[in-house]
Amino acid sequence: MYNIYKKISLKLDILLQGKGCYSAIGKIWFRQRQELSVGSICEHFHTVAHELAHALGIFHTQSRPDRDRYVIINEQNAQRNQKTNFRAEKSAKCATYDIPYEYGSVMHYRTHEFSVNRKATVIPRNPLYVQTMGSGTGPSFLDVLLVNKHYNCLSKFRKFSGKQI
Description:
This protein is α+β, with helices and mostly antiparallel strands. Helices cover 18% and strands 11% of the residues.
């Protein structure tokens, strides 16, 4: 997550007839407004939540700096224009806030996401998580906790979740 973007207000344009499903990760400093595209093929709550999380500064789970302990990435199986979505981010750019790796995150890809050859792009080191990856219907508890930690909103999080963090 980009720490620099915490204090910058975000003006988000949601394109409901966009040409795909996308958002930049965090506020783009040189733009007045940021686009979040929700094209006709991505009108599912899970997908919209995923792209909104990007706009808030959240990377893909399989891009965490510690991801190699949990998944194997087969970048050679990924579509050329999607390979950046499978690269590990440096810890200075992508904070985990001591939140455990979560296969069921709204930000985690399925095993064959963006495959060019029908072979797996992301393989969990523990095979019990194959069906869990990318299976969520919306943000998980840990997804919400991550955003709250990033924006330093833990008091509100505790109030609504009833959890002590």
